[in-house]
Structures are given as C-alpha cells and as structure tokens.
Write a structure and sequence with these properties.
Layout: E1 6-8, E2 11-12, H1 13-19, H2 22-25, H3 29-47, E3 51-54, E4 62-66, E5 73-79, H4 96-101, E6 105-109, H5 122-138, E7 144-154, H6 156-165, E8 179-185, H7 192-196, H8 207-212, E9 226-231, H9 236-251, E10 256-261, H10 266-271, H11 279-288
Parallel strand pairs: 5-6, 5-7, 7-8, 8-9, 9-10
Antiparallel strand pairs: 1-2, 3-4, 4-6
Amino acid sequence: MNNPPAVWRNLTQEALDAAYDQAVWAPNMEEVIARLAAKSAHARATLGEPVRAAYGAQPDESLDIYRASGGRNPMLIFVHGGSWRVGTAENNAFAANTFVAAGIHFIVPDFSPVDTFEGDIAGMVDQLQRAVKWVYEHASEFGGDPDRITLAGFSSGAHLAGVLLTTEWSSLGLPADIFKGGLLCSGMYELAPVALSFRREFLDLGPDSVETLSPARHADQINAPIIVAYGTDESPEFQRQAQEFVGALSAAGKTIQMVEMAGHNHFEIIETLASGDSLISRKVLAQIS
C-alpha cells in the first residue's frame, strides 16, 4: 500500500487539514471562547457600553470604542479572529480593561464574514482599511491621538492585521507609518498552505490572492515594530508560520520581538491579553509607552 502523498512540505492532506483545524489542537476551545465572551461582558459592565461608530454604510461596518480618561490618548485597534467567518466586536472586548486602565483607547471593529464576499478575503481587508482610516480621521472626536495607533490581531485577525501592516497607506491618503506598533498573535502569514487545506472550501484563494494577501511576502513594507506571538501547544504548522514570518521580518531589517508562550494553545494565549500582568500584555504596553 502506498503512503498518501505530501501536499505541503512533508504534510499529507489529512495532516495539513488537521494542522489548520483548531479543534484538533485545543480540546478546550469552546470553554475558552465562552470565557472570552464572559470577560467581554465584564468589560462592558465595568467600563460602560462602548461608543459605537459607523465607518461604512453596511450593517457590519461599525466599531466599538472603549474610551480611556483624558485626551489625545494612544489607541489600540484589535482585529478579532474566527476563521474569517465568525466573531463580533461585542465578544472581543475581553482585553479592554487592560488597556483602558493604562490610558489607552481600546477599539474593536466589526467586519463582514468572508462568506459575504464569496470567499474573497480582500473584501474584509477593504473594510478594515476603511475602519483604520475612520479611526485616524475621527480620533479627535473621542480623545484619541492619531499619531499613536497600535494594531493587534489574533488568529485570522492576525492575518488580516498583517495585511493592514503591509498596506501602502500613503496610496490611501494616510501616513505610511500610521501604525506605531503591532501585535500579531497565532496568525497565518503565508497563505499557500491555507489554500491547500480544507479551508479552501470557503476561501477563494487563487495564486494572485495568495501573493497579494500573504504578509510574509511583503515584510519589507512594514513600518512599525512588531511582536509575533504563538503558543507551544498550537499545531507545529502554526508555530512554523510565526517563526518563518519572524525570519522574513528579520531579513527585511525590521524591529521584531518573538514571544513563545510555553504550555498555551491557540485560544489560551490570546486570553492572557485580558491580564495586564501577562507577558504579552506587558510587551504591548511597553511598546505603546
């Protein structure tokens, strides 16, 4: 009997599909997701309901702003995960208390699932680019400093944040260095293996999209210091994604920190952002300050 062929490096189709299936590597996935939603509800209970602002005309094109006291405060924009298909700003406010307590506005955009765009991630990128543009142009209305915007993203949100970090913002009428820092946690930065995995069933990833939307291929366009984080209990493929992206950033001469969280799976690592004392939180807060 012949062994199944490898479809990506040394991975068979079955192994590649498992590598991009979080349920295989995080048996407590639903439990942690429920905790994140509960912590998000707690943030609203303690901070009050966020300012809700529309950055576009569609129902999903709005964002939540958890305001810190004072004026001209730095801002952190958090791009949530969810396999490009699910997730809401409401359930991704779990880290709001951490940043508001440090005098940082915490901003979470809503955006449409990729199914809305028939699998084309570029539609989501367009929405998030317009969300960033809205934050920059309207910062003075809610006490934000447009010259101090940090971007963070988790999972598929880390991929989207990576695309935002490699965007040529000057072509959109914004400063090339609009972001002063970034956190990319447990993301995918090279889409070639993703396009070969089971996710091709809902993603439209042809060669042009893979080229355009793979942040690792455009590391030279990043204009901010970046923190790349992953957990040692994530799939080896997700760990490789982070490590090779760090290599691409280093080769491009960028300022980079790699954070390896021992004993944390895909969902446990981002949960630590809810604590101001966690390693990731401390690094992001230090980057902003």
